[in-house]
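Expect chain and fold; thus:
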Amino acid sequence: MQRIRMTGESTSPQTSNDWHAWTPDWRRQILSELRSKDLEELEGWKQSLLYRHPFLLHARDTQVPPPDLTRTWLLSGGRGAGKTRAGAEWVRWAVLQAGYRRVALVAQTFSDVREVMIEGPSGLMWTATDPDDRPVWQPSRHRLEWPNGAVAYGFSAEDPDSLRGPQFDLAWCDEAGAWARGEAAWDNLQLALRLGPRPLVMVTTTPRPTGLIRRLKADPMVVETRARMADNAANLAPGFPAQMQAAYGGTMLGRQELDGEMIDDPAGAMFLRTQIDALRVAEAPAQFDDCIVAVDPCISARPGADACGIILAGIKDGVGYVLGDASAPGLRPLDWAERAVRLAEMGGASMILAEANQGGDMVREVIAMTGTNMPVRLVTARIGKKGRAQPIAALYQQGRVHHAGTFHTLEDQMCRFGTAEEAGSPDRVDALVWALWALMVEGRGPRVRVIL
């Protein structure tokens, strides 16, 4: 039986503070020589690597650092594939075994850093098996401190400039595929990783074809591993992976969200991610010539029913801006009306424009039930969804529409719209088309009745 000594060294030729000690081959060697019933009989058990890092016993090969890691490890995975746990265990190993002392934790928002990376069920605080190794979170400073003096600081990718001053020897970036200002945050982080003999960064994400993820996949210094939801089924609710596979297996959404595969634009896509990304802006103008909320109403709130599309858009000097998406499935009429009114009031919209094909005057009446004084105009479709969308797609091709921020669900639906991969009703796209048509194609804004 392999002995793990009090010093933390194993009889393996590789030492515990060498990153190559935590590789698939090393783990297989250890596990082949250990029996679980003998673990607590090991000499110096509570000072052993396996006591401090029990993840070594059951981690999958895709969850441990690849042997050829020199700078950046990209772990692409589906939802529930064990990415967060792998990231937290990697950081713990780095600060407890490998001598790393200053860590950057970067997520889309500060809330994500705290709720997922630090205090979440797979986060850094809850993966600490030994109370003597458990870090202390200091929320006012966005700082996590281990008993050995190592510290980690939380950063929001929404504020790339916050990464300009500090410096680190290690970083963990979570869900980088969802970062609205991903490339700017990444560039500033790279310049901050300048301490120690071997600065390293790990990226855990469900991959989306954003500019940052494309860069990482093309970078020869990045080593990628991939994990699927199905691989982690033992740690998920019974039957959940099978349910998700039945619902989304074989679709583009399933390949991305379940299998961790980056999906590019399908053949025949009317809207292209490269165009959307190229025209994306971090901030919209402070004032608009006009701004409206467009609604594609839903007629059923039953589970599985189509979503209600609710999109806020504005126009400034002939250029359109997508500003908000309050769309959601399973909404009752008064629920979607309240969401539309709330978005309109928050965005300073001049009116709400709603498609009247389903419900007619009922749509106006439901919106009035919210108590709003917001003007409402009804539009009636005379041609199909693709026909209505073509002039809007042309506006994107001309570079005349900007997305102020990132709207992942809307953009995913846009890039599947009109292709063989389209799934369900394009509710968000329909609302987007109505808004931009009224603001830009009609040319006189929403103050006239639009009939297509």
The first strand starts at residue 72 and ends at 77.
